[in-house]
Amino acid sequence: MSESPAKLPDFINIAARFCGPPESGNGGYTCGLLAARLDGPAEVTLRRPPPLERDLAVRRSIDGLVLMDGDQPVAEARHARLELDPPPCPGIGAAAEAAGRYHGLEEHAFPTCFVCGPGRASGDGLRIFAGEVDRDGLVACPWRPGADLADDHGRVRPEFAWAALDCPGAWAWLADLRNPLVLGRLTAVLDAPVLAQRLHIVGGWRLGREGRKYYSGTTIWNAEGTVCARARATWIEVDPTRFATSG
Question: Is 31 exposed, middle or buried (0-12, 13-18, 19+ CB in 10 A)?
Answer without folding.
Answer: buried
